[in-house]
Amino acid sequence: MKKSVFAVIGIFILLYIMPLGVRPMVIPDETRYAEIPREMIVSGGWIVPHLDGFRYFEKPVLGYWLNAASMVLFGQNAFAARFPSAMAVGISALFLFLTVRRFAGGYWIGIVAALVFLTCMEVFGVGVFSVLDSIFSMFVTAALISFFFAYMEVRFSKKTGLLALFGIFCGLAFLTKGFLAFAIPVMVIVPFMIWEERWKELFRISWIPIVFAIMISLPWSIMIHFREPDFWNYFFWGEHIRRFMSDNAQHSYPFWFFVPIIIGGAMPWTALFPAAILGLCKERFNDPLIRFATSWFFFLFLFFSIANGKLGTYILPCFPPLAIFITVGLKKYLEGGKKRTFTFGASFLAVVAGVLAVILVLSQATDFFGFRVYSSEETWKWIIGTAGLLLWISLLICAVKSTDFMKKLILYSAAPMFFILSAHFIMPDQTIYRKAPGSFLMNNSNRVSPDNVLVTDGPVRAVCWFYKRNDVYILNGAGELDYGLKYDDSRHRRLNVDQFKKLIEGDQGKKGVILITETKDYVRYKSILPKPVYADISGRFAFVQFEGK
Question: What is the pTM of this model?
Answer without folding.
Answer: 0.94
